[in-house]
Design a protein that fits this description.
The structure holds two protein chains of two kinds. Chain A is built from twelve helices and ten strands. By secondary structure, chain A is of the alpha/beta class. Classes of the chains: A alpha/beta, B alpha/beta.
Amino acid sequence: MAGKAAGTGWRRTSMSELAGARIAVRKTYKLYIGGAFPRSESGRSYLVTDHKGRFAANAAMASRKDARDAVAAARKAFGGWSAATAYNRGQVLYRVAELLEGRRAQFVAEVRAAEGLGPRRAEALVDAAIDRWVWYAGWSDKIAQVRGATNPVAGPYFNFSLPEPTGVVAVIAPEASSLLGFVSVIAPAVVSGNTVVALASERFPLPAVTLSEVLATSDVPGGVINVLTGRTAEIAPWLASHMDVNAIDLSGAPDALADDLAVAAADNLKRVVRAGDEDWTQPPALKRMLAYLETKTVWHPAGT
Amino acid sequence: MGKFEYAPAPESRAVVSLRESYGLFIGGEFTPGVDGHAFKTISPATEEVLAEVTEAGPADVDRAVIAARKAYEHTWALMPGTERAKYLFRIARIVQERARELAVLESLDNGKPIRESRDVDIPLVAAHFFYYAGWADKLEHAGFGPAPRPLGVVGQVIPWNFPLLMLAWKIAPALACGNTVVLKPAETTPLTALAFAEICQQADVPPGVVNIVTGAGETGRALVTHPGIDKVAFTGSTEVGKEIARACAHSRQKLTLELGGKAANIVFEDAPIDQAVEGIVNGIFFNQGHVCCAGSRLLVQESVYTEVLAALRRRLETLRLGDPLDKNTDVGAINSAAQLAKIRELSQVGEAEGAQRWSAPCDLPVKGFWFPPTVFTGVSQAHRIAREEIFGPVLSVLTFRTPAEAVEKANNTPYGLSAGIWTDKGSLILWMASRLRAGVVWANTFNKFDPTSPFGGYKESGYGREGGRHGLEAYLDV
């Protein structure tokens, strides 16, 4: 609210009123890479406006190098995060929900300012985003129980299959849903031990940046979730063709671009998730979690 | 090697504030009992009276069931799983926040070493609620159909060996599935269940969803035979379990039972002996042997018998028995005078039947209920100490020559709760595991528990499983 007042105030407030007013301290919206908040190494930024077209912020415009730094950070974090117990990962995701709940009003204001929604609608979306963290938190130690199996092979062998994380997941976040959509595409990747490089909505990047500030003060280890802002058409191809990225969610890429990205992704056979007709307010399917899981089958003889 | 001398390192009791007396937790409030009966709960280590606790009569049980029914019909079963989940997450968090207090309270009331209540019981309680909280909004993925329904009001009776952990095993899945509960803790260990009632208040759990009625056998009987109960869950002795099964045969209530055990802990000649000895000690002396899945029958391959027994005795001489609140204590107090009498009686029978008794040399405190870690050798399968559950720190040692003989002896019991296998040969582990008639088989480890892992028995160790995805089945209409 303070930001909005400051952004609009100069037109309406008289000079004499302004002289006595407290001037709000505005936030710099930066990238989130490896647990730190750098500006783009390129020095570039781009204008982000609210839904009425008024100045909201100069967001960092990530470069190819920022994207590569983010992938390196995600790869570095993969070992520790994927080796953490499922119970531990569940607690960490739940902690994100706890912190989000505490900053609910701030997110409602940001989502409203970005997407131009009524207060009730914005509240509902933020609540759904918080609940989505909780939902995924619970999956950490259950997905193997739903997706794994013991296999009754015809022989004296014990044989079981279990899911394991794919690795580094690049996410082109949905363009229209700045917070709920963003959460709905990153949580299913990290819950099972993948690490993520997420490119926020180009038009509405600010709630995702503010979310990264929540992540930084939660128990999510640095590098597990990295958040880039910038031009989708510029950054997404670098992520899609990066040979150390194992999977990519193309939700936020326009159709024509998405086809090209899928072609680029084929170079190292990335697992590709294409946008469906997702309604982010609906309970999610298992699709996204399963997309970032490998199945490992282990054979062992049984005998004296 | 002699015992190291340790300075006393007692955990402070200051974190616990006991009330003089406790009412029954019904409909979200502590209320006095209708007929005014009460009993005292003591510390088994000192015989000090800790608090006075209300003995619930049939009228109280009735009130609790009505409160649970009302909560079921008007709130809990109607609430979406996503919202039920949040209450369970809150409980998990409050248990974590109050963990030290709960650990001290558990050790005071139960007599178990603080090392175990602090590092095993209470962390597992929080983990159990956390795990089942996550199921509350995912039941359609659990493999029981697209929209599995809860059963209604659940009556639960739990034992004194892991008071708060058994409460968690009962209440967490029941609530996650949408049931409401009336739970009776054991008469010798009611205090952490009453602390849990306060936790429900702190979490704003809707009144009547959780009801705690304290009392002894009569209270339990009133609860499990109450016509307003849709499902009964019991953990305790096989004898009482059978009695409940007979009662439920008439009432047609759904029933799950987690009962006694007489687990075989099987050591092969190629086992890493030091590791195996640690596992044997953990298997039978963890929680003073008050563990239904305790490895109370040690089966040792003949070729390593002498070596294993010598190492075992050496290890037992270093166990520290005494003040449960001392952080260096390995073996705490026996939970009650009655249980101590039972352990003594069966040990005397063991001697009378011709087995050789050896106890670790240790000074027993003058006050309280104590029994030294004890090993019987020369035990045959016919001996009562090889057949009956002693539920104390008493190990019976038998030998075998071949894997087939080990299976034969391990399965030669009416029980079937757990078993242990010690060998470096993976294929032998799996061959044995497929032949042992037991609900949990530990290989090169023992007494491991996790909320994701189903637990429960074959044969007369009961039916139904607690923990994991399987643990949901007991509380769903499937």
